[in-house]
Amino acid sequence: MSPAKRLKRLPPWRDLPSVGSLLESAELSSYRERAPHEVLAEAARQAIAAARVSLRARGGSRKEAPSREAIVRDAARRVESELLPSPRPVINATGIVIHTNLGRSVLSEEAIAAVVETARRYTNLELDLERGARGSRMTHVEPILTGLLGAEAALVVNNNAAAMLLALNTFALGKEAVVSRGQLVEIGGSFRIPEILERAGAVLREVGTTNKTRLRDYERAIGPRTGLLLRVHPSNFAMVGFTEEVTREALVSLARKKRVPLLEDIGSGALIDFSRWGLPAEPVAREAIEQGVSVVCFSGDKLLGGPQAGILAGKRGLIASLRKNPMARALRADKLTLAALVATLRLYRDPAKLSAAVPTLRMLGEPQAAVRERANRLLHSLPADRASQSRAEVVACTTEVGGGAMPLARVPSYALALRPARGKLEDLARSLRTGPDPVIGRIESGRLLLDLRTVDRDELEKLARAIVRALEEEP
Ligand SMILES: *Cc1c(COP(=O)(O)O)cnc(C)c1O
Predict the structure, then answer these.
(1) Would you state the pLDDT for residue 106?
(2) Closest to 462 measured CA to CA, from 190, 93, 36, 120
(3) Could you write out the DSSP letters of every residue in 206-248?
(4) What is the predicted pLDDT for the residue at 169?
(5) What is the C-alpha to C-alpha distance for residues 60 and 81, in angstroms, rounded to an integer?
(6) Which DSSP string corresponds to 268-282?
(7) Which of 163, 218, 248, 273 has its C-alpha lying 20 to 30 A from 374's C-alpha?
(8) Which residue intervals define the domain L-seryl-tRNA selenium transferase N-terminal in the entry (predicted)?
(9) What predicted TM-score, i.e. pTM, was given to this entire model?
């Protein structure tokens, strides 16, 4: 066989460039300052591998082999993505303030500053400066929590799921936890009350029915094996119609009479009454404690607007047993969390400044007119041809609170609605998500809505640029 013939028979991917030659390209060389050699080499390897795959997919015809330039560009794109922070910032144009997939709460400037300082320097996290002896990390957060909640004692763990696990394991290990059937809910991300209960070593004692549970159902279930009564905020779920649940007051007196602790998972952790903004009243932690619930638990990053954390508060003796459980060490909150939480809670001491300072509260409470003003501003910042290409207009809409809080509440809002001519809504949504400043919107009745309630004024320019860029990608 002639050498020329033999060459033709070799698989065409033999012609793909080598890693070494890609690394020498001007484009990849330009990253040498910013990216370590290993990152560049890996990007080159992956780009070559991808080219090989696409070549195979097209039947291996030499004519269709990706060009060297295309492979270099692909490698550069891979390097770029390695240089981006991960997780990376996105523009939340869903209007959902507590969006679990987008990181739930955005922190206040005060909390951010506290995190940065705590991260940068050594701190007295577990050192009593006065005595020069070992201290507890809870001393930083417990006094402000007990003050705000009117509780005797408090404890902070990693998140509310951890708080539940710890409380159930402490009070009901090998014993029964009495719960209404109507409260055996699943709360996003596969957190199911019956399952967490089982993993905590407690035995589930269901009482009542799905829609109706009465006090005598609880009374009948309580006995020598009872470890605790559990009351759960049904979170993202609401029961309507022919329903009945036992009031908190009635459960408190029953728990007292039977001398068993009453644990209430209030879920989203409202520290203030949201009805002032026309939103439904969520269980407020302080009220639950005042009414005599033995221990309450809730999240730090839902309606409270702080970092991910699980807060437990209530009777001194019970909180002390939680602390003594060896599991508490495994579930404990990290120093950055504690710093952010303390800074957030301090803002709650000044109700006049609170709703401006905590982004979650600011966004939920912002008047409609202000949201509409931002929507109009965004619309007018789009070049006229792009605006008409996408039939952009400002529309009134409603959104949900998110985070399993206030499931039935609709928050009125305003959005920029885009209706690309060719009806390629999914493509436009994808272009917006995958651009340099990812934008997450929602598709609703044939339009892509970019809801301005969750978009900060400072993000408007970026958002406009992202829209223009995504529309340019339109065929
Ligand atoms: C959200 C929620 C949880 C879980 O809280 P995390 O902080 O996400 O772990 C538990 N219970 C209720 C009622 C909730 O709403």
Answers:
(1) 97
(2) 93
(3) EES-SSB--HHHHHHH-STTEEEEEEE--TT----SS-B---H
(4) 98
(5) 29
(6) S-BSS-GGGGTPPPP
(7) 273
(8) 14-52
(9) 0.92
Cα torsion angle, 3, 6, 12, 18, sign: negative
The two tokens of residue 374 are: 């931002």
Model confidence over 107-126: pLDDT tens digits? 999 999 999 999 999 999 99
Range 373-402 average pLDDT: 94
Rounded alpha-carbon distances, angstroms, from residue 90 to 6, 80, 214, 429, 438: 53, 17, 47, 13, 5
When pLDDT is cut at 50, 70 and 90, the band that residue 47 belongs to is very high
Domains of the chain: 12-83 (no CATH), 91-101+364-472 (3.90.1150.180), 109-354 (3.40.640.10)
Residue 236 beta carbon below 6 angstroms from any ligand 1 atom:
no
Q: Are 229 and 204 in contact (CB under 8 A)?
A: no
Q: What integer pLDDT is reported at residue 118 of this predicted model?
A: 98
Res. 10 pLDDT band, cuts 50 70 90: low
Closest ligand 1 atom to Cα of 234: 13
**Number of residues that make up the chain:** 475
360 lines ligand 1 (CB under 6 A): no
Q: How far apart, in Å, are the Cα atoms of 200 and each of 224, 252, 302, 432?
A: 19, 23, 24, 43
Strands 186-187 and 226-232: unpaired
Q: Could you give phi then psi for residue 106, rounded to 5 degrees? A: -90, 135
Give the SS3 label for residue 465: helix
What counts of helices (H) and strands (E) characterise the chain? 21, 17
Mean pLDDT along residues 433-446: 95
* Distance, CA of 102 to CA of 94 (rounded, Å): 10
Q: Among 298, 311, 331, say which to mutate for ligand 1: greatest number of ligand atoms within 8 Å of CB.
A: 298
Strands 91-92 and 439-440: parallel
Give per-residue pLDDT as tens, 240-283: 888 888 999 999 999 999 999 999 999 888 888 888 777 777 77
Residues 441/448, Cβ–Cβ less than 8 Å: yes
Query: What's the CA angle centered on 126, arms 122 and 127, to 5 degrees?
Result: 80
* Residue of 187, 195, 197 best suited for mutating to test ligand 1, as the one with most atoms within 8 Å of CB: 187
d(CA 141, CA 337): 10
First to last CA, the chain: 49
**Which three-class secondary structure state does DSSP give residue 431?**
helix
